[in-house]
């Protein structure tokens, strides 16, 4: 089931970056060479990401580190900051908005710190030598 989920979800995850690359190719490359180049870049991107997944030892540890940094930022830091900016621009910045968003950002900082610390400790344990 895990392989089936990846097989179905990988094209969806790869869609957004490829859409950006295709727009760049369509602006910069002659029309007759666009389609072969687009397929070459798609194939190269898939092969590159698969090679990186195979070549990075302990990939799960790296994914954990990226998740603790990027996941926390995207889910708990940026939305409150965006809300603060939007409320400020509309003149609707109340005490309740400040309290709620400061609480969320503080919670995000705790999650970021503990998640990053745990990931780094696991990486050090995995790559550390027992001779030192």
TrEMBL record:
<keyword id="KW-1133">Transmembrane helix</keyword>
<feature type="transmembrane region" description="Helical">
    <location>
        <begin position="62"/>
        <end position="82"/>
    </location>
</feature>
<keyword id="KW-0812">Transmembrane</keyword>
<dbReference type="InterPro" id="IPR013057">
    <property type="entry name" value="AA_transpt_TM"/>
</dbReference>
<feature type="transmembrane region" description="Helical">
    <location>
        <begin position="36"/>
        <end position="56"/>
    </location>
</feature>
<feature type="transmembrane region" description="Helical">
    <location>
        <begin position="102"/>
        <end position="124"/>
    </location>
</feature>
<dbReference type="Pfam" id="PF01490">
    <property type="entry name" value="Aa_trans"/>
</dbReference>
<dbReference type="GO" id="GO:0015179">
    <property type="term" value="F:L-amino acid transmembrane transporter activity"/>
</dbReference>
<dbReference type="GO" id="GO:0005774">
    <property type="term" value="C:vacuolar membrane"/>
</dbReference>
<keyword id="KW-0472">Membrane</keyword>
<feature type="domain" description="Amino acid transporter transmembrane">
    <location>
        <begin position="2"/>
        <end position="119"/>
    </location>
</feature>
<protein>
    <recommendedName>
        <fullName>Amino acid transporter transmembrane domain-containing protein</fullName>
    </recommendedName>
</protein>
């Amino acid at each position: 089931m895990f392989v089936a989920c990846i097989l179905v979800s990988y094209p969806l995850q790869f869609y957004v970056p490829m859409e950006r690359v295709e727009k760049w190719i369509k602006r910069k490359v002659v029309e007759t060479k666009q389609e072969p180049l687009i397929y070459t870049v798609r194939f190269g991107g898939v092969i590159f990401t698969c090679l990186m997944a195979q070549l990075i030892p302990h990939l799960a540890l790296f994914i954990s580190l990226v998740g603790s940094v990027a996941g926390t930022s995207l889910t708990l830091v940026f939305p409150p900051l965006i809300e603060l900016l939007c409320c400020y621009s509309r003149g609707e910045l109340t005490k309740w908005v400040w309290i709620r968003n400061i609480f969320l950002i503080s919670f995000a900082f705790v999650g970021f710190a503990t998640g990053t610390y745990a990931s780094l400790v696991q990486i050090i344990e995995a790559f550390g030598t027992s001779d030192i």
